[in-house]
Amino acid sequence: MNDETPLELPSADIATIQRMIPHRYPFLFIDKVRDIKAGESAVGIKNVTFNEPHFQGHFPAKPIMPGVTIIEAMAQTSAVLVSHTLDLIDKNPLVYFMTMDKCRFRNMVVPGDVLELHVTVIRGRGKIWKFWGEGKVDGNVVAESEFAAMIDLPKGVL
Known about the structure:
Elements: E1 8-12, H1 14-20, E2 32-37, E3 41-47, H2 67-85, E4 94-105, E5 114-125, E6 128-137, E7 140-152
Antiparallel strand pairs: 1-2, 2-3, 3-5, 4-7, 5-6, 6-7
């Protein structure tokens, strides 16, 4: 990778995402990742539908996407970004949250919304990465957070 010109991947569909991160239904909260700029940023897409399991209890009469799942979707978008940056496709990386700070929830996310997850690298070296994320619906910020994660790789990778 050239430090001056990050590698760009126009987008990652669901099949590519599943080759990059270990998450699966019912805990995969992104449908697509676009505008991937290695080492810099990416935008995850979550099409929010009423069929998701958390809406059975959160809340039956007024379904609202839990804030923690919005932050998790940001983290999954970040994991795709890191997987692309470090060329980890098909290498089975695991990603673990280390910190979540400055979390704010500004508006509700409900079935029918298209949630965009804008993530930017604050710091990324080796296994430890820190990000800023914003969730947006129709261009309006609905959630934001600063978070860090650790990438754990099988032996012999990198």
